[in-house]
Design brief:
alpha+beta; 162 residues
Length: 162
């Protein structure tokens, strides 16, 4: 069952999918429709899941589910990943590559390979003050508080020059 994102508690489980490019406004409208249809029918062993989503910066898809209402299982997670894979194919983007890293350069969001990110850190083009996106967060509370942070407050800090 699709619910309002704000109605989910901080313990709701989240998955963050980062697109390799920004979506156009028309693409976002279409993605909204597809995600809403999927979440309205998302099930765990026949039982509805209380779920929502958010699209940030026209580039990040966040799926959230209240596991206190009904827990997700391998099959329901697989169904959500299949929906994400369909979006990848339809919109010619990469949403599941965990080796791509996003960071801000002023107001621009850059997506680079982990190797390039490490190189930029060595060259000090990326510093402890660079805003990064920690897509490894697992709860709504962490997404709200620890997703968009400076590199020194994320797992990215291991690449920084001391």
């Amino acid at each position: 069952m699709l619910v309002n994102y704000e109605s989910l508690g901080d313990a709701a489980r989240v998955w963050v999918y980062q697109s390799s490019r920004e979506f156009s406004e028309n693409e976002v409208k279409e993605i909204n429709s597809k995600i809403e249809l999927f979440l309205s029918n998302w099930r765990h062993h026949g039982e509805a899941l209380k779920a929502s989503y958010k699209i940030k910066y026209n580039q990040f898809l966040v799926i959230a589910v209240d596991e206190d209402y009904n827990a997700v299982s391998g099959c329901s997670i697989d169904a959500s990943v299949n929906m994400i894979k369909q979006l990848e194919k339809q919109f010619s983007t990469d949403l599941t590559n965990r080796l791509n890293i996003a960071f801000k350069d002023n107001l621009n969001i850059n997506i680079v390979s982990m190797a390039d990110f490490q190189q930029y850190a060595k060259q000090q083009k990326i510093t402890s003050n660079t805003v990064v996106f920690n897509n490894m967060v697992t709860t709504k509370g962490d997404f709200e508080q620890k997703w968009e942070v400076t590199a020194d407050k994320s797992w990215h800090k291991r690449f920084l020059v001391s």
